[in-house]
Amino acid sequence: MLPGIPLPHDVVKLPHWPDFVRGVPNGFLRSPLFGAIAKGRRRFMSGEQVTTLDGLTILYTGERLDQVDLDGLERVLHILRLQALGVPCRVTSYALLKLMGKTDTGKNRRVLHTRITRLRANAVEIKQDGRSYIGGLIDEAYKDNET
Predict the structure, then answer these.
(1) Residue 77 contacts residue 93 (beta carbons within 8 Å)
(2) Can you list the pairs that 96-99 forms with residues at least 24 positions away whose Cβ atoms lie under 8 Å?
(3) pLDDT tens, 70-88?
(4) Which domain holds residue 30?
(5) In this structure, are residues 48 and 62 in contact, taking their beta carbons and an 8 Å threshold?
(6) Which alpha helices (DSSP H) does 2-105 contain, by range?
């Protein structure tokens, strides 16, 4: 057994936080991964190192992320905190929009779709304490275009 690697029968969850709080890894918040960027065409980054805290390295590939993308990730993590990791998370666009304080309109659904797509279409490599994670911020997403 490797230290820190859960066994298949172990249930791994995000830490629980109150409903009025949003949880995001500190390294994300204290880095420019989700920057304040101007509207318009976004720069594509390819394996670029993002400035971080000492002891943490983030390499990012994908379209530049902004604060609204962070808001979307916060809402997804907020829902995930209640379930075991590795289990598909089912949430409606309506529920995500409500968590974001947005109304359920066609325009807001299109913006949400764009944000989820951007969070899915990237790759991060995070290194800390001799361990690495390589993957996306969101593994995959499915959408029922009828409903």
Answers:
(1) no
(2) 96/72, 99/75
(3) 988 999 899 888 888 888 8
(4) 25-34+44-65+122-139
(5) no
(6) 26-29, 67-80, 93-99
